[in-house]
Amino acid sequence: MARGDGKLTHNLFDDDKGPQDACGVFGVWAPGEDVAKLTYYGLYALQHRGQEAAGIAVSDGSSLVVYKDLGLVSQVFDEATLATLQGHIAVGHTRYSTTGSTTWENSQPSFRTTPAGTGLALGHNGNLVNTADLADEARAAGIRGSSMGATTDSELLTAMLAARPDVSVEQAASEVLPKLEGAFSLVFMDEHTLYAARDPQGVRPLVLGRLERGWVVTSETAALDIVGASFVREVEPGELVAIDADGLRSQSFAAPKPKGCVFEYVYLARPDTTIAGRSVHSARVELGRRLAREHPAEADLVIPVPESGVPAAIGYAEASGIPYGLGLVKNSYVGRTFIQPSQTIRQLGIRLKLNPLRDVIRGKRLVVVDDTIVRGNTQRALIRMLREAGAVEVHVRISAPPVKWPCFYGIDFASRAELVANGLDNDGIRHSIGADSLGYVSLESMIAATEQPKTRLCRACFDGEYPIAIPATMGGKHVLEGIERSVAVPQLLGREPERSSAWAEDALTRP
């Protein structure tokens, strides 16, 4: 296994990072194919879902090898590395942490050796909410924590799946999966079989695709496209899929209670992905149309905040009749991995990511379309920059409702106290960011744009209605009972300075 030096994980924009997803997963069973390269390209297509670490596990039927490191997919893997990963089964993972710190030990796929001496590798997108109870159960059963220092729910899950000496991995999964609470889209493997599973709510996406000589399971349909796989169907909520030399088989481990994450449509998924039969790009364009009808503006030009604001800005321009234009240029090479900046560079802030086209915006009344406002720092700096470049008016339009509640199912927002929409009304936010006007799309319009019934969507970050109960130990009593609502849930799972860095290990190893 590769071990990185951890020096390329500084986030230049930690003071106002946007919502981040907790990973992308990819699995392939394809004898005769170069599964390591297929997985590499699949992870490349899922890079937006996590930029902190990447890894691939491969089996040739007799041995299972895992290679992972901190950094982007293109930083972790090269031709020489991929050439050493030979086999016909692979799982891959690209990580953004919501539980556990950003360390090599917490990168995935996680790996365990079973009592029979075989290997088990697992990649997880989502977040479990009953990890403390699971850790107690594992400890009581004599399952020990990782000797390598991993502290994630994924590591605990891998340990539980690999611990049974008397049953197969498939049987262990059918017994363990019903005990899990929270969001989980999983790909895992042993030497001979590829597995995939999705929580009963289906919070995070997971799809099944067909290759000429095999199968693919991955987070988004866009990853199927890049490896030449045809879309077959979604992995159903509460379904466990197994693929081996005997073909594909499926079983239900829990009754489905669909609650797909609405934020996938708004921001997280790639625009060229399809979720529940709905094109994400089409949903975002429709969000813009509805936003224009709900919050019109007298303006000369509609511009997006690249890249996530582009489809909604197109829809806004189409419905309003105001011309669409490119007013901001994005530096595509500024990501989460960045050399430590000097104070002078840090003060430039958003200009490292975005720069205005002065000739386009000078003297114009602008409608600026973005997907969300988190703390408001980015929008504040952006509006100031546009005014300095000559904009006469700046009207901000947001293609999602105000984010007021934390996510416990795999998205890393700011803490509740830091969410600007939680402490200020619309006019207060407008004044805070310096906009001439501010409008958010309504919850009803957002739901309508997805073309999914409201009852099949998790909307908790917008309306506080959590489809899976949140334990009080994770801030649930503050969120669900309304007690001390101004108290932040400490940086949401993975941002507690003490507990999240060691709690899973302690729970497994304490006497």
Q: What's the CATH class label of the largest domain? A: Alpha Beta
What's the number of helices?
Answer: 19
**How are the strands of the largest sheet arranged?**
4-3-5-2-11-10-12
Overall outline:
elongated
Instruction: Report the β-strand fraction as a percent range.
Output: 15-25%
Mean pLDDT: 84
Radius of gyration: 23 Å
CATH level 3 topology of the largest domain: Glutamine Phosphoribosylpyrophosphate, subunit 1, domain 1
Distance between the termini: 30 Å
Q: How many strands?
A: 25
The total tally of domains equals 2
Specify the helix fraction band.
25-40%
CATH superfamily of the largest domain: Aminohydrolase, N-terminal nucleophile (Ntn) domain
The quaternary organization reads as: single chain
Unreliable residue stretches: 1-17, 146-150, 336-340, 477-511
Mind telling me which CATH architecture of the largest domain this is? 4-Layer Sandwich
Label the structural class.
alpha+beta
Biggest beta sheet summary: 7 strands, antiparallel
Write structural notes for this entry:
- The protein has 511 residues and is an alpha+beta fold.
- The strands form 7 sheets. Strands 4-3-5-2-11-10-12 form a 7-stranded antiparallel sheet. The protein has a 6-stranded antiparallel sheet with strand order 6-7-8-9-13-14.
- Strand 8 and strand 9 form a beta hairpin.
- The protein is elongated.
- The N terminus and C terminus are likely disordered.
Topology summary:
Elements: E1 20-21, E2 24-29, H1 35-45, E3 53-59, E4 64-70, H2 73-76, H3 79-84, E5 89-95, E6 110-113, E7 119-128, H4 131-140, H5 153-162, H6 169-176, E8 182-189, E9 194-198, E10 207-211, E11 214-218, H7 221-226, E12 230-234, E13 239-244, E14 247-252, E15 260-261, H8 263-268, E16 274-275, E17 278-279, H9 280-294, E18 301-304, H10 310-320, E19 328-330, H11 343-348, E20 354-356, H12 358-361, E21 365-370, H13 377-388, E22 393-398, E23 411-412, H14 420-423, H15 426-433, E24 437-440, H16 443-450, E25 457-458, H17 460-463, H18 476-480, H19 499-509
Parallel strand pairs: 15-25, 18-21, 21-22, 22-24
Antiparallel strand pairs: 1-23, 2-5, 2-11, 3-4, 3-5, 6-7, 7-8, 8-9, 9-13, 10-11, 10-12, 13-14, 16-17, 19-20
Helix pairs in contact: 4-5, 4-19, 5-6, 9-10, 9-16
Domain Glutamine amidotransferase type-2: 23-246
Protein name: Amidophosphoribosyltransferase
EC number: 2.4.2.14
